[in-house]
Prior knowledge:
Layout: E1 7-10, H1 16-27, H2 37-50, E2 58-64, E3 67-75, H3 78-82, E4 93-99, H4 108-122, E5 127-132, H5 137-146, E6 149-150, E7 156-158, E8 161-169
Parallel strand pairs: 4-5
Antiparallel strand pairs: 1-2, 2-3, 3-4, 5-8, 6-8, 7-8
Helix pairs in contact: 1-2
Amino acid sequence: MSIDQIIIDELVEEEKETVRNLLVESYQQYEDAYKNPQVWETYLTNIKASVDNPDVEKILIAKSNDKILGTLQLFLSSEKAYQRPELQIFSPIIRLLAVHPEARGRGIAQELLKASLDFAKSQEADKLYLHTGDKMQNAIRLYEWFGFKRDRTKEFMNNDILVKCYRFDF
């Protein structure tokens, strides 16, 4: 897949189905890591529904040659992102960063992360958060390389999975 210039834009209604499919294709790689197939199916259902989440502040997409290659979602608090007000996060949170499997390794996730930092700054935030799990080692390496630091005070358990928190400080 040839990638020219990467354009970051906001999702529009006509692109929702494409982004939904991109999320499924991107996260499919983790299916075998789930011991319980029902937990995986629930996760996949939630991923598909996320594109229509009324609590999302903004969904960004990365395009090249009018083809959507990546996406992520931005929320303004832990209550809106996870229905977890007890985490006490009142800064932007990244969720569901995804890059199409055929487009990986070409800087798309980095461009989406840069746009997320710009969004957080536009909200006058001094931090940007995201949560991830051990299954996503490549993503964790990217976040750490990008400058995110682990914040154990904002982590939580989801079923039997530790959901790790990473924070970028401005």
